[in-house]
Amino acid sequence: MAEQNRGLMVRRHPGDDGPLPKKTPLLLQMEDIAMPVPAAGEAVIKMERVGICGSDVHYWQHGYIGDFIVGESCLMGHESAGVVHQVGEGVTNVKVGDRVAIEPGVPCRRCQQCKTGHYNLCPDMAFCATPPIHGNCCTYYKHAADFLFKLPDHVSSEQAALLEPLSVGVHACGRAGVTVGSNVLIMGAGPIGLVCLLVAKASGAATVTIVDLIEQRLEMAKKLGADFCITSTTKETPEELAERIEKTVGHKSDMTTECTGAAPCISTAIYATRSGGCVVLVGLGRPKVEIPIVNASVREVDIRGIFRYCNAYPVALQLVASGKVSAEQLDLFVTHRYKLADAVSAFETTLNAVQTQSIKVMIEC
Fold this sequence. Notes:
By secondary structure, the protein is of the alpha/beta class. The protein contains 13 helices and 20 strands.
């Protein structure tokens, strides 16, 4: 019997072929898709686990993120791991049967950004589930072999799929300069805020404070090792919240990772960071926001952006393999699990995260 490949597709409604989708949310459905055939330098992976990211849900609900617009259709999924099923010509770093984590972005390897080590900024990046590139929430998927990472026997496929969001935390903490003894503030206790927490603690941070509107998320942050969990309110100004954070912790933060993208949170991050410190913008919100730039400037608070990550997968894998980010922490992080056949329900659970109290939803392929 021939092998069958099925995947989770977002698809425009019939007749909707304009520059931007007119009818949203898009269709979300399981479909039969072609079996991949590896070219030279590629491998086909039998998928085992795929985590759902907020970007996946955004494409389903809105049809685009910035300049990345779903054309006719796009397979979802980019937080993933599986087993090598077939290899193409010239592949030597993995073989059939190897368990691997999949770094989802494949750059050109030739441009200035790639050659200087910033391949996440490659203008020709092909990133899973970022239109027009298909994702890997499917049964079989092919990928550049040099962006596959072999797993130690004690690292599970679910843990390997979590290397993708964990790599965002690695890159964010690296840009912030988190090290032994750092006092870190994290704005937002969603999935990305929580992985920044895990990486900051694993990096030796003395204190990690995390702020969110939702108590349930802060409860999870406490379980994952946060030293201070502060509930924000919509009634406070950014200055008032920053003052309350400082009074609670006893000092301003050395660095802050802002993981919400909300303008008031960005302002709070600046006010709550010590003079000479650093604010890293991880969350993405409105294209233009008003922030207290003079306050940041006269106090020499550096403001840095991040875009995905680069050279972070090996570090993330080492954090998990060594136990610095523990199996118990990652097990807590995954709150819901579904089979591939029920992937639509998995997306609905993620969409309604407040009601379902989901943090990370995982699909078993």
